[in-house]
Design goal:
Blueprint lengths: L4 E4 L42 E2 L3 E5 L23 H8 L5 E2 L8 E2 L9 E3 L4 E5 L13 H13 L16 E8 L2 E6 L5 H7 L35 H15 L17 E6 L5 E8 L13 E6 L3 H9 L5 E3 L24 E6 L3 E7 L7 H4 L2 H9 L3 H7 L5 E2 L20 H4 L7 H9 L3 E4 L2 E4 L20 E7 L3 H16 L3 E7 L1 H7 L13 E8 L27 H12 L3 H14 L3 E2 L2 E2 L1 E6 L2 E2 L15 E3 L1
Parallel strand pairs: 3-12, 19-20, 19-21
Antiparallel strand pairs: 1-21, 2-26, 4-5, 6-7, 7-9, 8-9, 10-11, 11-12, 13-24, 14-24, 15-21, 15-22, 16-23, 17-18, 25-26
Helix pairs in contact: 7-10, 13-14
């Protein structure tokens, strides 16, 4: 991103279509237009410009990001929006597509494989009607393809990063193909149709029968996962899963493996490389695509970069058509416009702002056997948040192109989902930057600064003690693994370390690649292998299937993308209430509690300034990271 996508810091700026100003909310609830810019360089050529058929559009991948998973059934260790929206979904469309070539965050039924779902029986029965689109091998995208996916989810819950205990598929009594193009789901209890469509049905990506196999030479469907069942202990799905996983791990064969050549999206893979720099991925149009529009470009090529300096050099020298301007190369923003008053790239590129509907944070490990008990104390989390100088980081690091994260709901642009508490303290939420407050919280709870580091001296559970499980002598000396490749991010963590030190919180910074850190984000049980303290890789986009920003992906007990193992029974209760009620009041209770409880430590959310070649038209940056380059074209 629930296939909400985790994203590296500032990676959102790197890929055309990679994010934009949010039109808020949920379809059928509300929407709003994105903020406007006064800069004269703020728009790409319109669709009225004379189009030129063909051409190869070149696009920068985020610095340090490597595509490494092609199968839509994605494991936690490869879960990020570059593997999904920016790669897989070009070729394999989800059951329901969200977003458009603009700023909508609504479900896009014209681009979806199924028509709008029907809810009956008081919200306990859901009927899905497929459109009959075609796979590139001639198969029909039908009801069996949906059942294949659901059976795989049933069999391999632990191996799918979108799984949350109690939710899909656990919340189904049964599901079946009642006709060639019809799937009926019977639910255990009534649901909010908005939540179930946006956060559950959006999980599903139909899979072709040519994938239901256990060997490359096997006949389509012979694997038997589509007809497998629990009474057989999902043995057939297990075998298919193992085969497809092996194929997906063999990244060097992505462009040549016939398994992945069967597509139903507008693009197919032409070439693929695992190199850390240079042209790494090329797509060409799928001539058999059933939807519209058909791709106008002859090809689309991704370029990889080891850091944002080399990416920006490529932009300045005209080597790529779409990229981003690093924060350090932007003039300070006075706040009067979302774009700089002057274009540092001149007339060769048009500039566009790119927000994403997401939040930024660092994850703390509640199950760390040493420091975990301290993290479980709310006052400790408050102290960690109080030393995040979000306004200062925006000014000093992001040059005025950032805004605070203050809870579990994105605050920009404004939406009905944002609770009032997140707007407190100029958008910092309930916990404004204050080193003195952080120190006071710690010293009033049994900590004393010893040689510059806060140390627990009063173990126990009284109001003035360190808290349950925190042993005497425990030090707030923490190691933060952070993602490399973006200079601004390195500056940000350095600022945090400096401010935390003043409050007696020692931070040891350990640089790691984004993919390495994502590989660490599997929840762990307390013990000798669960020793990381803080992971800082960027943030989370509510871009599928959690398009309604409820908390089950990140904050619910046992969620696969809750790597720090945060657990709170009241949080779980409030999250679950949003699943059955469409009331904004119910949602507000959940969102307010999350902002106050600090399951994560919130960080500033820097928006991007994208650069698009003045010769490339109809490039839009959707806030959900929905990339639709089939709309793009070169102009005369």
């Amino acid at each position: 991103m629930f296939r909400n996508r985790r994203r590296p810091r500032l990676a959102r700026v790197a890929v055309a279509g990679a994010a934009a100003l949010l039109a808020v909310g949920i379809a059928a609830c509300s929407s709003s237009s994105s903020p406007s810019s006064n800069a004269s360089s703020s728009s790409t050529p319109s669709s009225t410009a004379a189009a030129v058929a063909g051409g190869n559009a070149t696009v920068a991948l985020p610095a340090g990001v490597t595509l490494n998973w092609i199968w839509p059934f994605i494991p936690l260790t490869s879960a990020n929006e570059y593997n999904t929206e920016g790669f897989e979904e070009y070729m394999y469309r989800p059951l329901y597509e969200f977003g458009n070539n603009g700023d909508s965050v609504s479900v896009n039924y014209p681009l979806s494989l199924a028509s709008q779902p029907t809810y009956t029986d008081g919200g306990k029965t859901v009927t899905i009607s497929m459109k009959g689109w075609k796979w590139s091998n001639g198969e029909t995208v039908n009801a069996d393809d949906v059942v294949f996916w659901l059976n795989m989810m049933e069999a391999e819950k632990a191996n799918y990063y979108g799984y949350t205990p109690g939710l899909l598929p656990d919340n189904l009594v049964s599901f079946s193909a009642t006709g060639p193009d019809t799937v009926v789901l019977h639910l255990k209890s009534a649901v909010s149709s908005i939540w179930f469509t946006y956060n559950q049905l959006a999980e599903i990506t139909p899979m072709p029968m040519s994938w239901d196999v256990t060997s490359a030479s096997a006949a389509a469907g012979s694997g038997g996962c589509t007809t497998d069942s629990a009474k057989d202990k999902w043995a057939k799905c297990d075998a298919v899963f193992n085969f497809l996983t092996t194929q997906a791990k063999n990244v060097k064969t992505y462009a040549t493996n016939p398994i992945w050549a069967t597509v139903d999206g507008p693009w197919k893979l032409s070439s693929f490389s695992t190199a850390s720099a240079g042209p790494v991925t090329q797509f060409v149009p799928n001539a058999d695509y059933s939807g519209a529009p058909k791709a106008k470009l002859a090809s689309l090529t991704y370029y990889a970069y080891t850091d944002d300096t080399t990416e920006y050099t490529a932009l300045k020298t005209g080597q790529i058509d779409v990229g981003y301007i690093p924060s350090a190369d932007l003039p300070p923003n006075s706040g009067s416009s979302v774009l700089p008053s002057t274009n540092p790239l001149g007339s060769a590129y048009n500039l566009e702002p790119a927000y994403q509907y997401g939040i930024y944070y660092m994850v703390i490990n509640f199950n760390n056997p040493t420091i975990g008990p301290a993290f479980k104390q709310l006052y400790v989390r408050q102290a960690l948040q109080d030393v995040v100088d979000q306004p200062g980081i925006d000014k000093a690091v992001y040059r005025g192109y950032a805004y605070p994260t203050s809870g579990g709901v994105p605050t920009q642009p404004k939406s009905q989902w944002v609770p009032s508490v997140q707007n407190e303290n100029d958008g910092q939420g309930p916990y404004a930057f204050s080193i003195s407050t952080a120190k006071s919280l710690l010293t009033s709870h049994g900590w004393k600064e010893v040689n510059g580091v806060m140390t627990c001296e009063s173990a126990g559970t009284a109001a003035t003690d360190c808290g349950a499980g925190v042993t005497a002598g425990t030090k707030l000396s923490l190691t933060m693994d952070y993602a490399t490749g973006v200079q601004a991010f390195q500056e940000e963590v350095a600022v945090y370390k400096s401010d935390a030190t003043q409050a007696g919180i020692a931070i040891n910074l350990v640089p790691q690649s984004f993919n390495t850190i994502i590989g660490e984000t599997t929840p762990c049980s307390p013990g000798p292998k669960c020793t990381w303290d803080i992971l800082n890789f960027g943030g989370w986009n509510f871009n599928g299937p959690g398009f309604e920003p409820t908390g089950e992906p990140l904050f619910e007990t046992g969620a696969s993308s809750n790597p720090g193992s945060y657990t709170d029974s009241n949080e779980d209760k409030l999250i679950n209430e949003t699943h059955t009620s469409s009331s904004i009041g119910v949602f507000d209770q959940y969102a307010t509690y999350t902002a106050q409880q600090l399951p994560f430590i919130w960080l500033p959310n820097a928006y991007a300034v994208q650069a698009v070649s003045s010769k490339l038209a109809n490039v839009q940056f959707n806030p959900l990271f929905t990339w639709l380059p089939e709309y793009w074209n070169f102009t005369k």
